[in-house]
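#struct-pred

JT: dropping the chains for the assembly here, can someone run the whole complex?
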Amino acid sequence: MPPIAVDIDLAPRLRLALTRLGRRLRQQSDGDVTATMLSALSSVDRLGPLTLGELAGAERVQPPTITRVAGRLEERGLVQREVDERDRRVTRVRLTGEGRRLLARSRRRKDAYIARRLRDLAPDDVAALERALPILERLVGDDLDSAGRGWGPRLRRGGGVGAPPGRTTQ
Amino acid sequence: MPPIAVDIDLAPRLRLALTRLGRRLRQQSDGDVTATMLSALSSVDRLGPLTLGELAGAERVQPPTITRVAGRLEERGLVQREVDERDRRVTRVRLTGEGRRLLARSRRRKDAYIARRLRDLAPDDVAALERALPILERLVGDDLDSAGRGWGPRLRRGGGVGAPPGRTTQ
DNA sequence: CCTAACTAATTAGCCGAGCGAACGATTCCC
DNA sequence: GGGAATCGTTCGCTCGGCTAATTAGTTAGG
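RK: done, full complex below.
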C-alpha cells in the first residue's frame, strides 16, 4: 500500500472526473426541472428568502444568469418574487409550497441516476464518498476566501433575512 | 462509530456538490480550450486513435456533439482526422504533437482553479479526495452496465484500435 | 431641491454544449 | 443488384454561462 508519493495528478484527474460526472448529472434532469434550477431552488430553501443578488452569490453565478433561472422557477410556480418595501430595487425570491414539495420529492427519488449507481458500490466506497463529500462542498463552498473577483460585496444588505423556518437540507 | 444509518442525503448532496463544482470547472477553461475539449482530447490520448463513434461513446455523448468538438480540436491542430481506408464511412481522430503538448502542459498547470483550492486543504482532506477519486471515476466509468439507452451498439467495430503508444494518463 | 453617483435587477446578444431528426455516403448481405 | 444497416454530418432546438448596456430606485452633496 503506497499511498505515499502523493498523487501529483490529483487536480487534473479530479477536474476530468467532475467534468464528466457533472455533465451526466446535468443531463438527466428531474422532469423538466434542470439541475441548475434544482440547485438554485435548494439554495433558496437552505438560506431562506433571498434577494436575487444573494442568490447569484450563493450559486456563484452572475446576476443575469440568476434573473433567468429565477424566471423559470417562477413560471413553474416553484418560487415567488416579492419586492422589498423599503428598497424597491431589490426583489426577494421565496419558496412556494409547490417548490418545497418538488424539492422533497426530488430528494426522495431513489431511482435518480446517482442513487442507482451508489447502490452498486461497496460499503467502503460509499464511506469514502461520505468522507469526501464535505470536502467537495467546501471546495465549491460559500467560504470563498480567494473569491476570484468582486462579489463578496454582493451578500447581505437589506432588511434581515436569517434562515427562517422550512429548511429541508437538500 | 455508527456509519450505520447510511447518509440518506448522500445522493442529492453529492449531486449538488458535483453540479456546482462541475459548473465552475467548466467555466474556467484553459486558454481557449474548453473543459469539454480537454476531456475529449484526453480520451483520445488515453485510448489511442478513435473513430468518432468510439469517442462519442467514451465521452458519453451523442454523435453530433462529438462531430463538433472534433471539429474544434482539429481547427486548433490538436488532433487530425483520417478516413479509414477499408471502410470509408469511418474517420479516426489522432493526437497531433501539438495536442500531446497541450495535454502535458495542462496537466502541469498548478495555478488552475482546482489546484489552487487543493493547496489550501489539510493533508487528511487531500487523502480523502484521493481515496474518493477512483470511485468517482468508476461512477462515471466506461463500465456502463445499466448504460441508459442504446449506445453499447456504438463501440468497436472497424479494424483494430488497441491503445497504441503515446499514452499520458491525463 | 435637485443633481450626481451608486446599486439592483433586467434586457440584449454572444457562445459553448448538450440533444433529436433527417440526410448523404458507404458497406453489408441476401 | 438492391434493400437495410451504419457512420458521420448538418440543421435547428434548448439550456446555461458570460459581458455590456439599460432601467429603476436610492443616497449623498451642494
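JT: nice. Chain A is about 50% helix and 5% strand. The longest helix of chain A spans residues 10-27.
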